[in-house]
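Private note to self, pasted from the team thread so I don't lose it. Backbone tokens:
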């Protein structure tokens, strides 16, 4: 399983604008959550629940609760 690692920066692209790239840096983690600094809606530090959304062995986190929110994947690392 690909997992989020402390200190690494992950990215995803906006659904609406392919040129818009969101970044998230993992500050700490537990088995079920990560704390990360991200630039979605301005710089902020937030805790996220880790999910295996698509049963493909890759951790994901949802960065929002709306229809086109960014979804960060552990396989998209900078």
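Design output:
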């Amino acid at each position: 399983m690909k997992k989020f690692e402390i200190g690494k920066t992950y990215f995803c692209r906006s659904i609406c604008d392919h040129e818009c790239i969101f970044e998230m840096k993992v500050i700490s983690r537990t088995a079920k959550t990560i704390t990360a600094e991200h630039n979605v809606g301005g710089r902020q530090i937030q805790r996220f629940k880790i999910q295996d959304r698509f049963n493909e062995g890759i951790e994901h986190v949802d960065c929002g609760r709306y229809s086109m929110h960014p979804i960060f994947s552990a396989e998209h690392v900078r």
